[in-house]
Every structure is written in structure tokens, then in C-alpha cells.
């Protein structure tokens, strides 16, 4: 029933993953720890574990269960992994030797139908409605464009004179348009590399929203804020109570967990994209706790354990 | 995926669902009738306030709440100001002065306002909120019992140094007391309460570990170094933070996570 992965010391068992039934696998439960009494006999240990498992089914806002938008969509997502879609997009863009045009804080891209499909399925960019029938135009955010360009190496970006920009030039251009670009890009690529879908979070007052797969299939789980670890947080969020309360409340009302990504530059100056390798990312969620709800859940646990 | 499909489901309005979790929060401030559901009125205890200690000494204890309230010392029970006020507000305790005159509620509120007994108004609001829901709450670092032969570590009685002085019948080092009070700045982030889940079988002799330690940040949300410092202090017991404003208490926690790598 439970996969107990590691006993970190005599009193604690840390759960890495728990299989409750065939279809439900809770990943990322590493943050849940259970304190056990010393010298617990196997039967008591078993009872305790059962109680924890029942409790986990009734986790309040800590629950990391993804909310799929319909029956069969979870299976559909499993059958069509995001990593594969992104990889197909990458190949397709390389093959057609795509060039994007940097304009303001966006990169405009002219693509064929196959690429339209792949860009949509991988969730990069927004389509621009035009009268042109045989070509499709897309608008990419700076992070999206730089990711395709620098991380996936499948896009070239040109300036108005059709000269291809080097990664360094692009980096500096984007940095000059937005001071927080290095931190934001690190956060974006950190999540994308794990195959999460990352979109702008501005409509929720946060920096990004992260989805487990395409937004048509699943609701986003995380509202993401990017903060600079160390001194001088240029993003300036969560510094005052009003912002803290506001952000947390907003996330709660749209059923997303607030995820803070602390970006540590580790003393490196952001003068070239190579410095990205030296940055580290710390993931932190901020969740509200409701003592009223917790008490109700506790009662459910107690009622259920009477049967076990 | 069609272009139309994408643009309508990119995380726009279809994503925003209102969760009713927070809508009822406002109600709790005003339904004070619920607080007194615990049938206190039949069992009214008596306690005498000790100004030197900043605590109340129970003279006559009635009712089941004493299993989760007060410190036991030499078979006497002492309550902190928040424990005293909570019970007095609920009508479960009559507080007396040295002349055995009943101290009115107004004067107990004054004691909290004076801030000399280690609990400010906001801390009391948090205490009351959790106690009313049945949680077991203890000021952080204060033991449940004190054995007479053991000289208590001064660290464990942070906030109530006078106990050491009076009960051990030794005068406490004045410099130590001054330091202790100087360190309790209002805006400093420190552990406030140890919170245990509601438990009818709770025993002061073996309370177990608290579910979490509650901290009350001051003028600004806690910073990362502050949180890390507290985590170190609390030795693996989970931390929660609370924020009190205009009579509303909210709780939250910071959790280190690692998002899984998806297929």
C-alpha cells in the first residue's frame, strides 16, 4: 500500500510517493513527514501508516492532485507527453529554418500550418489573427523566444536589418527591456525543462502559471512568483502584508497554489546567458491553513480509523 | 489543436473558478456564542492573580479544561495571562486579587494591554481563535509541568523568568531578566505558540510533540533568512505563521517542494 522510501532518522519516515490505487499516484509528497514514536512495533507502524494515507486523501489546500478538465483527459495527456510535443516542435522549427523578429518585448514568427499546430500543442506563443491565408503569425514572449533560441537551439532571431542576433546580443537586448529578465528566464526554463507548461500569469497578478499539460486538458496548479534570493529583489513582491494577503487570496479563489521560485545568482553577474548555469532555483509553496477545515478532516480520520 | 481551441483555453477565464474556502471567514469573528459551547457555566474555577509572576494561581479547579491549560508545579497549577483571559471571557474562571476580590474582565484586558505578562492583544486573539476550535495551545518554550527538584533551564521559561525566581526561591540574575525582556521586541519574529491537535486524551505528563509551532511576524511578511532561522530553532517541528489584522486571523505556511519532472 505505501512505498516508504527512506527512513531519515529513527523517528521519521519520509514519503516520496504513495500508490493509493491503480490510477492515483501522488508525486512530490516529499514535504509530508510523519513523526513516529520510538520502538514502534510493525503492527502499530502499519496502523499509523494507514492513518497517514487516509489523511492524505483529505489533504486541504496542500493537495497536489491535478485537476483534469474531463474524463479521459488524464489518459490522453499520458499518451501524448509534453516532452514529445516540444521535441517535435524543435525538429520542425530547425527543419524549416525559422527566423523570428524581435519587436519591442515580443518576437514575431511566421510559420507554416504544421508549426502552428505544434506551437499550439506545446503552448508557445499566441497566434496573431491576420488576413494572410497561407501563413500564420505567432507572437512569442521574451522567455518563450529565448527558450526556443538558446535552450532548444531551434530558432534564430533577427533584427530589423535581417541580421541574426547572437545569444549574447539577444540576452543583453532582452535584459535592457526588462531588468528582471534573467531571473524570469531562469524560472521559466527551470519549469519547462521539467516538462511543465508555463504561461504568463499577469491576469492573476502573478508572474507565471504552470500547467501539468495543455491548458485545454488540465487546470493550472501553480501561480508562480519569481523572487531574487539574496539582496535586492527587483521584483519587489511579498514585501508588504497587503501584497502577501492579496496574492494568497487571489490564488486561493482560483484554486491555485502559490509557488515562489527563489532564484539565487550565487554572486554571478548576469552579463551573458552562460551565467544561467550558475544560478540555482529554490521552490517554495505558500499555503493558507484553515484551522476549521483541518479539524473537520481530523474528525474524518478518527472516524475512519475506528474501522481499520 | 485548433487555434480557436487554444486561445480559449490558454488559461483565460475558463480557468478562474471561485473557491468558497474564504468566503465564510468573516462569519467567525462575530459568532461568539459558539465559543461558550463548551459548557463552562456549570464549572467555574477560581484563581488568584500573582503580579510578581504575571500569572494566575489556580485555587479551585473545576471542569475538564485543566488537562490542557496551565503549568503544573508542586501540585499547583499556574496559568498565563492568555489562558486566564480566555477562561475569564468565557465565564469559566473567576479571577481574584490578593484580597480575594473579583477582578473584573476590564482589568484583565488591561493586563494584556500593559504588555508585561508576555502576551500582546494580537497574540491573545490568535490564542482565543485556536482554543475556541478545540486546539491545545501552549506558549512556546513553556513546559507543561515542572518538577520541584529540577532547576528549570532559563531558556525554557523565556517570557516568564519570574517563576524561576519565586519558585526556586533564588533571586534571578537581574541582568538576565533585563536581557530577556529586551529581546522580546514587538516586531521580532519569534515562535509564539506550540499547537497540538484537539485531543480528549491529552496528558501534560506526556504531551508529545506539537503539530506545529506558530509564529507571529511583525510589521512585514517573514523573509527567507528569518524563516530559516526559526526552522533551525524549532528542530524539525513544522512552522506556521499567522497574521492578525482587524480581528481576523489568517494562518499560512511555507513549504519546500520539488515539482516532479513530467513525462
Automatic annotation (TrEMBL), chain A:
Gene Ontology molecular function terms on file: nucleic acid binding; tRNA-intron lyase activity
GO CC terms: cytoplasm; tRNA-intron endonuclease complex
Domain tRNA intron endonuclease N-terminal, chain residue ranges per copy: 100-171
Keyword list, A-Z: Endonuclease, Hydrolase, Lyase, Nuclease
Domain tRNA intron endonuclease catalytic: 185-269
Enzyme class, first EC level, given as a word: lyase
Reaction it catalyzes: pretRNA = a 3'-half-tRNA molecule with a 5'-OH end + a 5'-half-tRNA molecule with a 2',3'-cyclic phosphate end + an intron with a 2',3'-cyclic phosphate and a 5'-hydroxyl terminus
SUPFAM superfamilies according to UniProt: tRNA-intron endonuclease catalytic domain-like
EC nos: 4.6.1.16
One of the GO biological process terms: tRNA-type intron splice site recognition and cleavage
The family this protein is said to belong to: Belongs to the tRNA-intron endonuclease family.
Designated name of the protein: tRNA-intron lyase
Origin species: Davidia involucrata
UniProtKB/TrEMBL annotation, chain B:
Biological process according to GO: tRNA-type intron splice site recognition and cleavage
All copies of domain tRNA-splicing endonuclease subunit Sen54 N-terminal, residue ranges: 37-95
Keywords of the record: tRNA processing
Annotated Gene Ontology cellular component terms: tRNA-intron endonuclease complex
Recorded superkingdom: Eukaryota
InterPro entries: tRNA_splic_suSen54 (IPR024337), tRNA_splic_suSen54_N (IPR024336)
One Pfam entry name: tRNA_int_end_N2
Coiled-coil residue spans: none
Homology family: Belongs to the SEN54 family.
Protein name: tRNA-splicing endonuclease subunit Sen54 N-terminal domain-containing protein
Source organism of the structure: Davidia involucrata (Dove tree)
Amino acid at each position: 500500500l505505501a512505498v516508504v522510501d527512506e527512513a531519515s532518522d529513527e523517528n521519521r519516515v519520509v514519503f516520496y510517493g504513495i500508490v493509493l490505487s491503480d490510477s492515483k499516484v501522488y508525486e512530490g509528497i516529499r514535504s509530508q513527514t510523519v513523526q513516529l514514536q520510538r520502538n514502534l512495533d510493525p503492527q502499530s507502524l502499519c496502523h499509523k501508516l494507514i492513518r497517514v494515507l487516509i489523511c492524505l486523501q483529505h489533504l486541504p489546500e496542500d493537495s497536489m492532485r491535478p485537476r483534469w478538465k474531463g474524463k479521459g483527459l488524464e489518459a490522453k495527456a499520458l499518451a501524448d507527453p509534453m516532452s514529445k510535443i516540444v521535441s517535435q516542435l524543435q525538429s520542425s522549427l530547425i527543419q524549416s529554418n525559422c527566423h523570428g523578429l524581435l519587436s519591442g518585448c515580443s518576437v514575431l514568427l511566421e510559420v507554416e500550418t504544421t508549426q502552428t499546430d505544434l506551437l499550439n500543442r506545446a503552448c508557445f506563443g499566441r497566434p496573431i489573427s491576420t488576413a494572410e491565408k497561407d501563413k500564420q503569425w505567432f507572437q512569442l514572449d521574451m522567455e518563450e523566444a529565448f527558450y526556443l533560441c538558446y535552450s532548444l537551439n531551434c530558432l534564430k532571431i533577427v533584427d530589423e536589418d535581417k541580421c541574426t542576433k547572437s545569444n549574447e546580443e539577444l540576452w543583453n537586448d532582452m535584459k535592457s527591456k526588462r531588468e528582471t529578465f534573467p531571473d524570469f528566464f531562469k524560472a521559466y526554463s527551470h519549469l519547462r525543462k521539467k516538462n511543465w507548461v508555463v504561461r504568463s500569469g499577469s491576469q492573476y497578478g502573478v508572474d507565471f502559471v504552470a500547467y501539468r499539460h495543455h491548458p485545454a486538458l488540465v487546470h493550472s496548479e501553480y501561480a508562480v512568483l519569481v523572487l531574487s534570493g539574496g539582496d535586492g529583489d527587483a521584483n519587489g513582491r511579498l514585501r508588504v502584508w497587503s501584497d502577501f494577503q492579496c496574492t494568497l487570496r487571489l490564488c486561493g479563489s482560483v484554486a491555485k497554489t502559490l509557488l515562489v521560485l527563489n532564484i539565487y545568482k550565487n554572486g554571478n553577474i548576469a552579463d551573458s546567458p552562460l551565467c544561467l548555469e550558475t544560478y540555482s532555483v529554490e521552490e517554495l509553496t505558500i499555503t493558507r491553513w484553515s484551522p476549521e477545515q483541518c479539524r473537520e478532516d481530523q474528525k474524518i480520520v478518527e472516524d475512519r480509523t475506528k474501522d481499520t | 489543436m485548433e487555434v480557436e481551441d487554444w486561445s480559449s483555453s490558454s488559461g483565460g477565464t475558463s480557468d478562474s473558478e471561485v473557491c468558497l474556502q474564504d468566503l465564510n471567514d468573516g462569519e467567525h469573528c462575530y459568532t461568539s456564542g459558539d465559543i461558550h459551547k463548551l459548557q463552562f457555566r456549570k464549572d467555574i474555577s477560581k484563581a488568584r492573580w500573582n503580579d510578581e509572576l504575571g500569572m494566575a494561581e489556580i485555587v479551585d479547579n473545576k471542569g475538564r479544561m485543566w488537562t490542557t491549560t496551565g503549568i503544573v508545579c508542586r501540585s499547583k497549577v499556574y496559568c498565563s495571562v492568555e489562558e486566564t483571559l480566555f477562561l475569564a471571557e468565557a465565564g469559566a474562571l473567576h479571577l481574584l486579587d490578593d484580597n480575594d476580590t473579583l477582578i473584573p474582565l476590564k482589568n484583565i484586558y488591561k493586563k494584556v494591554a500593559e504588555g508585561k505578562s508576555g502576551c500582546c492583544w494580537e497574540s491573545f486573539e490568535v490564542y482565543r481563535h485556536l482554543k475556541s476550535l478545540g486546539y491545545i495551545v501552549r506558549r512556546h518554550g513553556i513546559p507543561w509541568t515542572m518538577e520541584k527538584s529540577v532547576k528549570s533551564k532559563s531558556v525554557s521559561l523565556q517570557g516568564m523568568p519570574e517563576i524561576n525566581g519565586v519558585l526556586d526561591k533564588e533571586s534571578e540574575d537581574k541582568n538576565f531578566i533585563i536581557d530577556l525582556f529586551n529581546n522580546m521586541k514587538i516586531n521580532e519574529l519569534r515562535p509564539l505558540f506550540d499547537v497540538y491537535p484537539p485531543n480528549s486524551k491529552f496528558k501534560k505528563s506526556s504531551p508529545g510533540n506539537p503539530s506545529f509551532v506558530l509564529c507571529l511576524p511583525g510589521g512585514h511578511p517573514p523573509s527567507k533568512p528569518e524563516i530559516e532561522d526559526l526552522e533551525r530553532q524549532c528542530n524539525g517541528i513544522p512552522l506556521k505563521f499567522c497574521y492578525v489584522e482587524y480581528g481576523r486571523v489568517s494562518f499560512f505556511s511555507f513549504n519546500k517542494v520539488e515539482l516532479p519532472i513530467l513525462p
